Amino acid sequence: MKEYDHNKIEKKWQKFWDTKKTYQTENKSKKKKFYVLDMFPYPSGSGLHVGHPRGYIGSDIYARIKRMQGFNVLHPMGYDAFGLPAEQYAIEHNVHPRKAVEKNVKTFRSQLDKIGFSFDWSRQVNTTDPEYYKWTQWIFLQIYNSYYDAEKNKARPISELIKKLEKTDRNFKKLSEIEKEKILMNYRLAYEGYSEVNWCPKLGTVLANDEIVDDKDGNPVSERGGYPVEKKSMRQWFMRITAYADRLASDLDGLNWPQHIKEIQKNWIGISHGSEIEFKTNIDRNIKVFTTRADTLFGVTYVVLSPEHTNIGEFLVQSQNMAEASKYIREAKERLNKGDMNREKGLPAGEAGKTGIELKGIKAINPANGEEVPVWIGDYVLASYGTGAVMAVPAHDERDFEFAKKYNLPTKQVIEPIFIKKNGSDGVKPNLELIERNAVVCVVEHWSEKKFLCLAWKKNDWKGFVVGGIENGENLISAGEREIKEETGYQNLEYIKKLEYKIHSQFYHEVKKQNRFAHFDVLYFKLKDSEQKELAEEEKLLHDLVWVDKEKVDAFVSTDEDMQFIWRVFIKSQAYLSDGILSHSNQFDGLTSEEARKKITEFVGGKLVTKYKMRDAIFARQRYWGEPIPLIHKKDGTVVAVPEKKLPLVLPNVTSYEPIGTGESPLAGVKAWVKGGYETNTMPGWAGSSWYFLRYMDPKNKKSFADKKNIKYWKDVDLYVGGQEHATGHLLYSRFWHKFLYDSGYVPTSEPFKTLKNQGLIMANDGRKMSKRWGNVVNPDDIVKIYGADTLRIYEMFMGPFEETVAWNTDSIIGPRRFIEKVWRIGEKVMAKPKNNFGRYAFGGIQQGSSQNHSLVSLQKLLHKTIKKVTEDIEAMRFNTAVSAMMILASEMEKSENINIEDYKKFLQILAPFAPHVTEELWFSLGEKKSINISGWPKWNEKLIKDEEIKIAVQINGKVRAEIEIPADMLEADVLDLAEKNENVKKWTEGKIIIKKIYVKGRLVNIVLS
RNA sequence: GCCCAGAUGGCGGAAUUGGUAGACGCGAUGGACUCAAAAUCCAUUGAUGGCAACAUCAUGAGAGUUCGAUUCUCUCUCUGGGCACCA
Fold this sequence. Notes:
Layout: H1 6-20, E1 33-38, H2 53-68, E2 72-74, E3 78-79, H3 84-93, H4 97-115, E4 125-126, H5 130-144, E5 146-149, E6 154-157, H6 158-168, H7 170-174, H8 177-185, E7 190-200, E8 205-207, E9 212-214, E10 220-222, E11 230-239, H9 245-250, H10 259-269, E12 271-281, E13 287-291, E14 302-305, H11 312-318, H12 322-344, E15 356-365, E16 372-378, E17 389-392, H13 398-407, E18 415-420, E19 434-445, E20 451-457, E21 463-464, E22 466-469, H14 476-488, E23 493-498, E24 503-509, E25 514-527, H15 537-542, E26 543-549, H16 553-556, H17 561-572, E27 580-582, H18 593-603, E28 607-612, E29 617-618, E30 631-633, E31 639-641, H19 671-675, H20 692-695, H21 708-714, E32 719-722, H22 730-743, E33 756-758, E34 762-763, H23 780-787, H24 789-798, E35 806-807, H25 814-832, H26 836-839, H27 851-875, H28 879-895, H29 901-911, H30 916-925, H31 942-945, E36 949-956, E37 959-967, H32 972-981, H33 983-989, E38 994-1000, E39 1004-1009
Parallel strand pairs: 1-2, 1-32, 3-4, 14-16, 18-24, 19-25, 32-33, 34-35, 36-39
Antiparallel strand pairs: 5-6, 7-8, 7-11, 9-10, 11-29, 12-13, 12-15, 12-28, 14-17, 15-16, 18-27, 19-20, 19-22, 20-21, 20-26, 23-25, 24-25, 30-31, 36-37, 38-39
Helix pairs in contact: 1-30, 3-4, 23-24, 24-25, 25-28, 27-28, 27-29, 29-30
The structure holds one RNA strand.
């Protein structure tokens, strides 16, 4: 047989598949569909490195097994080619960005082709193709012409809203077009507004975050030229993604996605349930605040407005220190801008500490108790979240606490902590009654040193301060003194202070065998001298007295939450942030936080509301290389859509791709464009990628983005593979658009991607990311040339779990290469003998007895076990262990004298998704006439998988001491008997008493000795 | 600071309804084949002690639950990712 020349073989079959259209998806098929999708790449100038194909290989293997299992598989590929790098290239070389894209696409295609993917290239899409972006523009217009109907909880055409407004609002009809449009703009799902951009005056352009660097003083400057960058408010288009926030969050539950991606999206959306509460003021202007802690309303000691609060001017003009306050606002805004810029670049926002200024003379009135509190402006309050104002409760909010400490504002405790022990020896026992007790905790300081008196209990390992019950009618301080004297013997105490609130604790009292609900008062004493009386014997047995250094007390009492809390409150005066029990809150005293939130909100006429961290998405770039937004600004100030018939609105040619100096896109420099009133912003990068998976279903359709029948057949993506860096971008935007299309009746599912898998990164040898910058890039072309595509594919799957980051190691590739050569050699062996010698070994016909036949049987058993394992592993995307199983099978086959040719073919079939070229070559060499890649998937025989004889371990006290061989179905009593009789076991059990014997079926026996 | 994930030989990694830790691969050492080399094959390869049989220790650290813990619980350390004044 021929030598294994991977270059020749791989080229040959790639050509074969191409001409025979082996991987072309069937158009009208009665087969079940299966849609396997990769995140399409941005074709960058530097091409692929070996990290890029990892995800593609995984999804390709998945697509291949599905194809072999008889599904009609859609496995397409395309290019997401709008964006900055191509534009940059255009500016530098003064060529049309399309040229750069064409060139890069060519490189990508040739690199991908070498790896032997089973893409159906006839369905390729490219976001920069006018025939494609025609439909991106079309979808944009549908979004623009829709609003979110809160009652129906879905998007509806804006025409419905107009009708509604005409019915309900008499004035609406009388309004001018401009005025009507203004109102509608507040409802449209795509709307015009203002937002801040990074503006570089010197370059006369808006910069993306990654075009900005820090200069040596930490100020933001342009990467090109090093010119200062500032924030500038500019007209932008937005998408009202926040309308979908609830659905985007709650629908995550039904998705088969990696947990952490769901977590990231959930955090990003950031739902908080809280209350909006109005504070009246002494100047006839209310301040509305948002809080999640309405239960702390009685603890409000001041109110804070954001420097960027929309109505700040109204308060400013009536304050007594207007000049000073406006100066503060100006400076604060500047700082915030800089902070924002840092945040966008992923740097710390620069928490130099909170600053603020009081608006003198202005008072807010607490609606809960009528108390007047001061009004402040503070830079720690965000204008863009909630209402832009907060009620400050320093006792129960860390930020307010910090601010109050800095500006000497009062603190008022209204939530008493409650600790419920759940685990451990003092965890509350579920079926036992709770007994309420009033009690006292005493913190006792040493008479001369910086030490505190602690107790370490002997019965359990409880550590804390002096604790005791209060007897009926007893004075609090004397109760404390009595306890200290009884438990420690110290006599001369000086009372210092008392914690102004109680601490509640539920726990199990081991000595008294009771569930306790204790209400602690906390007292602070100092010893006057060292006088100490001898303790009663029973007290001595209970606990040790320990003097603990002040610095070490926190650690000493750390095993007990409430003791540690007491210490921290007294010594570090920390805010209590958790829920608890209300106090100093009039009629609400004694309620839990949760109950109180609703009741207090109701009481003050507030509203329960939901807020989101997520903001509406900016849908505009001030750049050339993107989809034109199909809107026309008319002279009268209204905006109209480009008629559907005129789509695509084609990107015009420009003479220069340079920014034009006003911050607008180069399109603003095209006379005809501006004259026509066309929008000069272009769409952001995420537009084209938010729906491309739908276009693959029907990529050449001229009448719609995809035909209804095709959409109905393909429905949604069954498996989506890509990097986790798109968690809050592409994956969120796609879900948003898809939900919109679902609401509008264009797609049958409300979620586009049923199952999502994230391939892990491939790091370079040096542990860094592969990048031109580090010079550590490995090009797959080189690997394919030296080792072959099949080897590369197997290596990338074998190197570690698919979803985890692993380091590339070119030395290790030799393993998978040897494996393929082994498979090749086995093929040679199989083919060396006349076929007739093999046919008769079909199973069922094997005679027991001879060692040769015996090895055939065990090989066949192994084959069927391997088929099972590989099938299940691919389904679960555990490619590394699938490869490992096939390596074991190959080694056994090579050792074996006789190999059943049909068995060998089955092996080739399960290997084919991983190594399509070499298996195809061998498959045809064995006389097959049709591609192995559509040959069907072998099934395993359950009977052959079961072993009759199994080896199990025998443990003595949990340690393996012997191994015995037993029939798989042997009864427990017999197994235990056999185990005990084993020589090695006897050695250990001799003269010992066996107290327990355990048999875990098919696994092990454990003999427990006393 | 908060949230999430993770930590296993020289290296990549395997093993979970709690049941023989280190599969498979790389590397290393020794051997067979060869004039020689490459390739291939065979053997050994967690650590310590021992001629050996074998024993002890070992899954980031410490505790706990259990006949038995890489797997479950708690605390801590480190690494990666996300968020970052979101009230």
